[in-house]
Design goal:
The protein is of the alpha/beta class. The chain contains 5 helices and 4 strands; from the N terminus they run E-E-H-E-H-H-H-E-H. The protein has a 4-stranded parallel sheet, covered by helices on one side.
């Protein structure tokens, strides 16, 4: 699986593969047409409480990963379906945050990679 990450404010490209929004809230100022999305996985977004606690504070990143990964455990079947569905294709996880290194799309990609490795064992 080829997983890419893009901000919702970046232009969609033909080589993005399936574009999926992974935020709970729609990105401000982006129209549905301009977003070029194939799906919206709200259920895989961090809870409102976790999102507000994190506040994209890089100091909280390691704790955010732990807490978010714990939340994602409740969606194990969905993650398995994602891995199986996109095994031989490209997917672009789309997010709205300004910080390109500390956001839930980056964390979700790490989590999916971790689950892919576990599946291979």
């Amino acid at each position: 699986m080829d997983i890419r990450i893009k901000r919702a404010y970046d232009e969609a490209a033909a080589n993005d593969g399936s574009r999926v929004l992974v935020d709970r809230i729609w990105p401000r100022g982006v129209s549905r047409d301009d977003a070029g999305l194939d799906d919206w996985w709200k259920e895989l977004a961090p809870s409102d409480a976790l999102r507000k606690w994190f506040g994209h504070d890089p100091q909280k990143w390691p704790d955010f990963l732990d807490k978010y990964f714990n939340e994602l455990e409740d969606h194990e079947d969905f993650i398995t379906e994602v891995i199986d569905t996109f095994q031989e294709s490209r997917i672009t996880l789309v997010f709205g945050a300004k910080d390109r290194r500390h956001n839930n799309a980056v964390a979700l990609k790490k989590y999916i990679r971790k689950k892919e490795e576990e599946k291979m064992l």
